[in-house]
Amino acid sequence: MGNNENNHVKVPKDHPRLTSLMYRHKIIEGMKNLVVAEAGLIAHGRGECFDYILGEITNKIAIQAINAAVAQLLLAQHPVISVNGNVAALCPEDLVLLSKTLNAPLEINLFYRKKGRIDAIKKLLKKAGAQKILGVDENTMVEIEELSSNRRMVDPSGIKISDVVFVPLEDGDRTEALKKLGKTVIAVDLNPLSRTAIWADITIVDNIIRTLPLMVKIALQYKKYTKEQLKNIVNEFDNKKNIQDILEFIIEYINLQKEKAFDILYK
Ligand code: ATP
Ligand code: MG
After folding, report:
1. CATH number, domain at 228?
2. Cα 131 to ligand 2 centroid, rounded to whole Å
3. What confidence tens digit (pLDDT) does each residue in 25-64 have?
4. Which of the listed residues 194, 207, 209 should we mutate to test ligand 1's pocket, taking the one with most ligand atoms within 8 A of CB?
């Protein structure tokens, strides 16, 4: 951690929001080190809000999406893990572990390509154990025409030739563009109503900090499965139903909290 005075505020170990505060600090530190864009702070806050109304747990519906995602990635010819600043700041080690377990390269892909950001993310991933990182050489990048933003530049040996792209915390425009290019898109997004969530083939509505370690665990198990078994897992998954189930879960969760709130207020 840096020398900012915020970092000297001691948070008691039994603080009910300890985990959340810890990850906030990672995002803040990431911003200071150039890894996270200013807008990344706002995106993180939007995610926190949705996590709150999901009870800050990985529910059974999300686990089904995670299972389908891992099976799909293991079936892919050219799977790629797209990395942005927030994911790199929150869980670099888990990204590296997942990349190794799935044999899927990491490709840095940014919306805000501020000078030095790619290098900062590269450094962070290397420190976490990454060996090969794609999307770092400006000279060899190629364009995907479906996008007007900076993210239209992709690595010719990564996203360009990929069949399955894993995009944690993606932007809607980009997800749409990847779909138009014929890619199978797997997203992690705490907001089940975002354009990313709706456009993706498999939407994991969960916090990336909980999703990645679970994916590694499941990947180790699924690597022993046959192609047929993996295909069955993918085929049984229905993303529209997945999102509808999540929305139902949120409604039920909020109703439960409503009851509890009244218990506390009128005791
Ligand atoms: P879209 O462009 O897909 O419609 P958006 O514009 O609302 O979405 P963005 O800022 O583009 O949102 O992307 C950030 C997304 O990442 C948000 O939907 C937010 O809920 C989600 N998010 C932020 N932090 C996390 C996290 N730790 N885990 C999972 N999702 C997260
Ligand atoms: Mg967006």
Report:
1. 3.40.50.12640
2. 30
3. 999 999 999 999 999 999 999 999 999 999 999 999 999 9
4. 194
